[in-house]
Amino acid sequence: MNSTHILSAFDRDLEAVQALVMRMGGLVETALLEAAEALDARDEEMAARVRAGDKAIDALEDQINVECARLIALRAPAAGDLRTVLTVMKIAAALERAGDYAKNLAKRTVVLSQMPQVMGASGSIRRLAKAVVLMLNDALDAYIRRDVKLAEDVRQRDRDIDQMYNSIFREFLTHMMEDPRNIGPCMHLHFIAKNIERVGDHATSVAEQVIYLVTGSLPGEERPKFDTTSARG
Question: How many CB atoms lie within 10 A of CB 219?
Fold first, then answer.
């Protein structure tokens, strides 16, 4: 009876922490979409809200880490349960970094609102952000459902994000060659696109943690990467 009581208490505590993770994930997804929308609409007020909202994301990560440490200290979880707690902490860390990228996107949006607009660029950024947010949402869904198949699907979709990013990079190069006045804004837009692509990497990391949680081991093969821009001079 005592062990059953302890197990139930651990499960309740873990569910509470997982609820914090999902809330954190929701805030990150909203931040990314709103930052991309602010860029498209040149809405400095919305960009400022995204930047301010990053504090709530950081606070949730701190709370998750405190609760996980308390779980380990008080409940002394066995191997499988300990793996779950450690996975939660790693997912929270990935979400915090994704939130930082959303904040950086919003910062550059304010700068870009004072520069000449590059035709079609903000729409491309917004499509990339939507694809990455869907990927992150599916990674978190895979975690809640312990769905290895969905997690692997997310992992494979990272190549699609890389290809979208490569296409946007080439688009910006074309704009800069056509008109030198585009060089400044295109440089900022490139950093934004790169930040969003990195959020895709963090979504992939979340998916890989799901695979680790369920199977006990990380994927053996390297994730497929198709970002070719690092090879450029």
Answer: 16
Residue 103 contacts residue 31 (beta carbons within 8 Å): yes
> Does the pTM exceed 0.85?
yes
Cα–Cα separations (whole angstroms), residue 225 to 12, 160, 219: 39, 9, 15
pLDDT at 183 over 60: yes
- Distance, in Å, from the CA atom of 43 to the CA atom of 132, rounded to the nearest integer, reads 21
- 3-state SS assignment for residue 21: helix
21 within 8 A of 140, measured Cβ to Cβ? yes
CA 108, CA 86: separation in Å to the nearest integer? 34
Residue 65 has pLDDT above 90, yes or no: yes
Residues of 164-199 as b/e, b for ≥16 C-beta within 10 angstroms?
A: bbbebbebbeebbeeeeebeebbebbbebbbbbbbb
The answer to whether residues 70 and 153 touch, using CB atoms and an 8 Å cutoff, is no
pLDDT score at 134: 97
